[in-house]
Amino acid sequence: NLQIGIVGLPNVGKSTLFNAITKAGAEAANFPFCTIEPNVGVVEVPDHRIYDLAAMFKPKKTTPAFTRFVDIAGLVAGASKGEGLGNQFLSHIRETDAIAHVVRCFEDGNITHVEGSIDPVRDMDIINTELCLADLESVDKKKTKTAKLAQAGIKQAKADLPVLEKVYDALQNGTPARALTLSEDDLEVLKELNLITLKPVLYVLNMAEDDIADPLANKFVQAASAEAEKEGAKWVPISAEIEEEVSELDGEEAKAFLEDLGEEEPGLNRLIRTAYSMLGLINFFTVGPDECRSWTVRAGTKAPKAAGKIHSDIERGFIRAEIVSYDDLMACGSYNAVREKGLLRVEGKDYIIQDGDIAYFRFNV
Ligand code: GDP
């Protein structure tokens, strides 16, 4: 499952958004997880296809894909100075696949801004600087160690050192690691550091309720989105307050409420979709009388590796995959009709799983 870390300055609307996520998630029927920590919220990935499949196969259990949001508190200007960012902070953020950076684009005299004024571009810069400094600390440690080993004549260390130096210099100038051109080998050197600034960032522009009909009419959204685009990052306008209100309503009520606002779906859905496309994620499905389930993989994943999501034994003993696309299945109306029409394909170990594939894996035990 996709994991997204929520960061941002205090009083920008992180908790409000996080509450909306937790409430929206609480409604989801069954989590395939055992424990959920207080700073983790889990919501379904919006995808009607899993429910269409469930309607066809009537399984005992339907399991959609989920996204985990981790609320990462504690970032303010200077957070990385002195004590450094807490270990807990770092361990939470390092586990995530992507960062949702919440930026305040609403004005409200009653809600103080830690920096004294509303200025989304400055805020983005403060947080990005802190994240660079957090990474700088980890790169520095490894660089020092590697330099010693290189001096002692260790070949691998000699090869690794320039990469660490390149990233170190960038971070010191406030350039996130993701902005550098790094080869597969470079990334391998950096892998164990789990750098925060290597993770893709999605800017969540939190604006006033009234602005949601036309986000770009808001000058703060204009400035923040332009800044995001400058670094090639995605951005999503939302109103955290609306999200919280929507999360308190049940399905039909929520729909009517959103319709009144001229919205088709909660902003949270848009956020998750954008994260999926940013990370190149797709969903495939497994179906049957026991369970219909959605699985998330990166686009370009081969069949055995996709099967490994379900169980490592299936990956190890992979023989072949029987595949039908969601569209073909829906057009045929049943699995049998798919077979009769010859639309059930037998694919080998080099087959690349496609979004919407319904897969049945044959494997040797
Ligand atoms: P955090 O410190 O980033 O977690 O911020 P919170 O979510 O606690 O929000 C700080 C305050 O701003 C709370 O009182 C929220 O109700 C309020 N707030 C959040 N989003 C909006 C918004 O879009 N408009 C207005 N006016 N207030 C908001």
Automatic annotation (TrEMBL):
InterPro entries in the record: ATPase_YchF/OLA1, Beta-grasp_dom_sf, G_OBG, GTP-bd, P-loop_NTPase, TGS, TGS-like, TGS-like_dom_sf
Domain of life, per the record? Bacteria
Residue ranges constituting the OBG-type G domain according to the UniProt record: 2-258
| Binding positions (ATP) | N11, V12, G13, K14, S15, T16
What would be one Gene Ontology cellular-component term for the protein?
cytoplasm
What are the required cofactors? Mg(2+)
Q: Does the keyword Magnesium apply?
A: yes
MF (Gene Ontology): ATP binding; ATP hydrolysis activity; GTP binding; metal ion binding; ribosomal large subunit binding
Q: Which UniProt key words apply to this protein? A: ATP-binding, Magnesium, Metal-binding, Nucleotide-binding
Q: Briefly, what is this protein's role?
A: ATPase that binds to both the 70S ribosome and the 50S ribosomal subunit in a nucleotide-independent manner.
State the family named in the UniProt similarity comment for this chain: Belongs to the TRAFAC class OBG-HflX-like GTPase superfamily. OBG GTPase family. YchF/OLA1 subfamily.
Q: Give the matching NCBIfam families.
A: redox-regulated ATPase YchF
Q: What is this protein called?
A: Ribosome-binding ATPase YchF
- State the organism of origin: Dialister succinatiphilus YIT 11850
Q: What's the name of its gene?
A: ychF
